[in-house]
From TrEMBL:
Cited InterPro entries: A/G_cyclase (IPR001054), Adenylyl/Guanylyl_Cyclase_3/4 (IPR050697), CHASE2 (IPR007890), Nucleotide_cyclase (IPR029787)
Calcium in keyword set: no
SUPFAM superfamilies in the record: Nucleotide cyclase
Single annotated GO MF: adenylate cyclase activity
GO BP of this protein: cAMP biosynthetic process; intracellular signal transduction
Chain ranges passing through the membrane: 336-357, 364-386
Species in which this protein is naturally found: Jiella endophytica
UniProt keyword list: Membrane, Transmembrane, Transmembrane helix
Pfam families per the UniProt record, alphabetical: CHASE2, Guanylate_cyc
Coiled coil: none
UniProt name for this protein: Adenylate/guanylate cyclase domain-containing protein
Top-rank taxon, per record: Bacteria
Amino acid sequence: MGERGQASRLRSRLLQRLRRDGGGRAADPDRPANRPGDAAGAVLMLRRKRRLAETVACVAAAIMLCLGLAEWQPFRTAEARVYDFLATLAPPSVAGVSAEDGGIVVVAVDEPSFAEVGLQWPWPRDLHARLVHALRAAGARAIGLDFVFAEPSSEAADRALASALGPDVVLAADESVIETPHMTQLIRTEPLPEFVAAGARVGLASVSLDPDGVLRRLPAAEDGFGRELLLAAGAEAASPSPPVGALIRPMGPARSYPTISYYQALDPENFLPPGMLKDKIVVVGRSLQMAIPAETGGADSFATSFTSKTGTLVPGVEIQATITDNLRHGLAVERAGLPLVGLAVTAASLLAGLAAWRPAGLTTILLGAVFVGAVLAASLCAFFLGQIFLPPLAPSLAVACVLAPLAARDITEERAMRRAVTRAFGHYLAPAQVERLARDPAALKLGGEKRELTILFSDIRNFTSLAESLKDEPERLTHLINRLLTPLSEAVLDQGGTIDKFIGDCIMAFWNAPLDDADHAVHAVQAGLAMLAAVETLNGELAAELGATAPTLSVGVGINTGTCIVGNMGSASRFDYSVLGDAVNYAARLEGASKECGVPLLIGAATAAAVKERLGPLLVARIAVKGRSGVAPVYTVLSGEPVDAGRRDGFDAAVEALLAGQPGGEAAFAGEGALQGLYATIAAREAAQSGVAGPAGAAPEAKRAS
């Protein structure tokens, strides 16, 4: 036994030695390696070379792509939005920059001034002369009138203003570019020569907007309004020649500067604290106290970096004050040139390439996030410490352009490996276990798709009064509402609609999603008509059950057709299949406007066009809806047989005349019950609203829907 054990141990050691030395042959240090381990090393080396080549290719492609995008105007516009964000993070304090030399005060031609002065605009120039004298007497160092006095007015008024002017007054000039197919012409509008001869300075008040309509660039004119204002005040610009394309550092939203009304400045002794204007630079211009929405626009008002945050424009007079302070205190921000951007893009791409060298995983994602954070930090430091705007989008995009394709490659290889695992273990494990081993966990994703939908809103009329009358019987109120909502919901479902949600006593539904519906507008309107019929049926049932105490129910229906986003909306843990878009909001507004229009069913113009041939929509009104500019036609559809095209066109023409203030078309529909009744309803409504004036050039509109 001892000899057998010793032989066994010897045989085992020999096998181990053979394995170690290469499969049974004696190890020869002078013999070229040709072993399985060497083959595996060669494969690994080849894989590393391929991975290195792919990484270098992705880095080079990312650098070229991002540098190309950096010169693409839409991309530069996106970078400008980043500048807006940085510029509004910590704007310079008006009080802080004013502490050095008195600062700037804005004299606003505002609503209180119009009320006090009692004159139409433009005001007489002798009134401006009085203002100049009053400001000068109050101690103002320089006065800027942000008005272009290019045309003569009355001789006496012009003479009075000319006598008030001097080297401490700056008048505005304007430049405009007129482009035609044949030429581009630059037109400069100057003040009257007698005003310049009186000693007044002239400053160019024109500004240049970015392609997205936002004012960000500092005017480059040597005789700009702000520069001339500083010269008139005896001050010097901190940066006499800011770089071309330098960006304005905004001081804040509208009314950031100390502002007084024009009428107060006319009599500072009675309306202003003593010494308020002493040694101040005063800028005079139009500045309404009411914030002007950015989408509406306004005269001499501009979108600035703060507009994206506040949604309002900044008056031109405050723009001139901001430009003056940017010049006086050297606040302008220089945009980084292509070499600096290229350096940032290259550095970000190389760092991302290093992060992607290892197979993609959580560490890669974290490193990518760290690199993007470093880019943002560098952009912040350059902005606040060096007054240089280094756009972070291109370097951040470079990180994504490197990591994304390399991560996709790793994911593809990992999935291939999972398939290999499935094949390898399929003979040894149960199919369910193999599937569980190799399957990736499914994730629900938020998002949606763009589609043309028809949206319906239905709401119970006078629900507040009904709830008040049944406040002591909540069970009865609940039963009544459920009894009404049931047939209304069935009307939607019978026409193939999708009920989005119940909002109290309101139903929201839409058509053409998730299943396609070529006639979605027709089906929505038919559902609305079915709702009205269901309400009438329910009222009859309640009258038979309760007699004189039965409530009379009614609903308003608004329908609109338009492009929306439909899909899973909500949070990552809880969401609904719903729809978003302006067309949805408009449908809700139409439902609210149906009461003022005097009809239970109101549809938008797009829906009316879609159902015109089959359901015969009839014009009801032209309304202005909150959140939309202008007026738009709205229609209704009568139950029963649709009105033929000839009678429909005649009815619409009669309603158009009625809306234009020309009643008297009711005789044309005598004996036609439905048309006669609808026309009478519209005529009664217009008579009741005859005191409400519509917009110039348009028919009188129905009451604005909220």
